[in-house]
Amino acid sequence: NGAEVVDFDWTDAKCYDSVLKGVKTVFCSLPHMEAHQDAFTRFLVSCKEHKIEHFVKISFLHKDEYRKNVPLAHFHNVCDELLEQAPKSSRINFTILATSHLMSTPLLTQGELLTKEHKYVTASYGMGVDYVSPNDVADAAMVVLFDRKTHRNKTYSLTARPITDREVARQLSIAYGVEIKHIELGYHDYVKSVESRGLPHWLVKDSAAFEKVKASGIDEDPKLYTKDLENLIGR
Q1: Angle between helices 201-216 and 71-85 (to 10 degrees)
Q2: Is the pTM above the cut of 0.85?
Q3: Is 62 exposed, middle or buried (0-12, 13-18, 19+ CB in 10 A)?
Q4: Helices (H), the chain
Q5: Distance separating alpha carbons of residues 215 and 125, to the nearest angstrom
Q6: 87 phi and psi angles, rounded to 5 deg
Q7: What count of Cα atoms within 13 Å lies in the side-chain half-sphere of residue 141?
Q8: Which terminus of the chain has fewer Cβ atoms in its 10 Å neighbourhood, N or C?
Q9: Residue 154 in 3-state DSSP?
C-alpha cells in the first residue's frame, strides 16, 4: 500500500511517540539544522523505548580529516558511536551508511547561483573530490532495509572515484542545458560568497569546512576508497 506520510519535527520530542508507535525499522537521514545532536540523542532514546529493531542511518565517512575539520561530520560520527552502543541496552540493530560529499550538496548551498547566475563556486583548488550520488546511497539503503539479518550491526563506507569541481561544472552544464561557469575562490572569499547568499551561520560554517577538506586533497588518497557501495548495489 506504500508508505504512510506523517507529520514529524526533529525539534519536537513530543511527536516521537506517535511517529514510532508500531514501527520496527527506522531509516534516519538527519537534515542540516541547529542543535541536531540533542535531537538525535532524544530520538534514539525514544527508539529504544519503542523497541525499534533496525535503525539505518546515513552518515559521513569515519575519517579523522572529516571529523576534525567539519562540524557536521564530527556530529554524525558522535551519533554513530551512540548508535553502535544501542544493541547493548536495547533491541536495536544498526546499519550505518557512511559517505562523504553528496552530489546534491551544490543544490543545497548554490541553488540560485546555478539556476539564475549559472555559476558554480568552490574553493577546492583543483583537487579530486569524492562525490557520491544520493541515488546510489538510496539504493544501498533499500538493500540493507530488505535484508536486516545480513547487514545488522555493520558500518559501510560508500565512496566513488574522485572528480574535480571543474568536471562537476561541466556535468552541471549538461544537466541544466546551459553553460555553468566554474568560479574557483580562495577559502576566505568562498566564506564571504556563502554568507552573501543569506544562509544560516551553521550552514555557512559546514559548507566552508567541507571546501577546506576538499582542498586538502584527502579525497585523492586511494586508501579512502572501498568497494562497499559496489558490493551492496552491484555497480
Answers
A1: 90
A2: yes
A3: middle
A4: 16-20, 36-49, 64-69, 71-85, 105-112, 134-145, 148-151, 165-176, 187-195, 201-216, 228-233
A5: 5
A6: -60, -20
A7: 19
A8: N
A9: strand
CA distance 81 to 61: 13
Grid cell, residue 51, equals 523497541
Cα–Cα distance for residue pair 196/207, rounded to 1 Å: 13
Q: How does strand 101-102 pair with strand 54-60?
A: unpaired
For cell 541547529, the residue is: 34
Residue holding cell 560508500? 158
Report whether 34 contacts 7 (CB < 8 A).
no
